[in-house]
Amino acid sequence: MGDQFDIGARLNAMRSAAGLSQRQLADRAGVPHAQISNVEKNKVSPSISTLRKILSGLGVSMADFFEPERRPLAGPFFNSDQLVDLTSKVAANSIGDGLGRMVFRQIGDARGHNLQMLHEVYEPQADTGETLLQHASSEGGFVVEGELEVTVGNEVRVLKAGEAYLFDSRIPHRFRNISDKRTVVISGCTPPYL
User: Entry's CDD domains (predicted)?
Assistant: First the structure.
């Protein structure tokens, strides 16, 4: 498997370290018991919203899940190779329900600043998932390249390069690249979500 991140093994190790059974974690996270088992055995690849929900049952962020030993740099300046890669260790199609891959790179220490700044790349057909995201934050983003379909509540709009979004993240939302070209977004979220 090379340097591919093993979501199932990591979840199993974290759940065991917390002293929780699969059923206890499922109850805490509000997901079906079988879902924990299937993720741990790598039978299914969870969407961002599903993985985030499971991790909330452990009280763990996605950043800590994917980069447990990392120490964010203090800054104030960062080279491209100093951004914290939250998702590219996961094989294509592992996060999101779409066919395309997503990569989220975080700038610096999100917790320390109570602000998560991300460089996001959505390959064609990338999708955060049919289960809409929802969390206690505010978030905004600017489309640098390509097009991104953004759903916020009952509103849906395809944003093109130069357009932006800003909303209360407690409103269910979803991001999809429905085009055949790569989309790049710079976004911010406070308090940090991933």
Answer: cupin_XRE_C (cd02209), HTH_XRE (cd00093)
